[in-house]
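Course assignment 3, question 2. Fill in each field.
Student: A.L.
Task: Predict the tertiary structure for the chain below.
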Amino acid sequence: MDKIKTDRRVVKTRKAIHNAFVELVTTKDARDITVRDLAKLANINRKTFYNHYNDINELIDEIENEIIIAFDEAMAGIDLSKALEDPVEICRRLLAIGYNLKDICAHLMKIEYDGALVRKIASALISSIKKTSADQIHVDDKTLTQMMEFVVAGMLQNYQTWFNSDRSEPIEELTLRIGRLIVSGLNGVRDAYLNQGE
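Answer field:
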């Protein structure tokens, strides 16, 4: 029982630190965030922070890994040959990532897109997608890399715009449109739009 309580306390403290970091990183560069800043916002003391992390870089690595693991889990086992015919499955999995990491994503998407942390996450996502799709999309590595860079950059830019808007459009509709763009390109989105009017 004591171990369960301890584990819950650890999870709660780490979540508070994570939330404090992603909130701070929307107003200042990650390199300028201090342990003092984090401790104050997370309502902990500095010693508690160092009980969990050696430094802020270790915290950043953990947050990045959490996002990448969530992405890997969501995309694991996807049949791209079917997904390329119908974007709904890709959309569903993208939404699952967003819902699971809602707080982190909401803050990160308010950062300017050229922020170092978002760039690192984008790079990791590209690697993750390439790993998942390499044996299903039969092109050379250079072409696959270009394809994934195009997809990830566009996807992140669309979500960033949505998070910084009034969010009147349901995120499900945005995700479906992104999925169509990924799968069918501009013609696919145009055809879906024209079909709505029939």
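Instructor remarks: The mean pLDDT is 76. The chain has two domains: 1-53, 61-196.
Grade: pending
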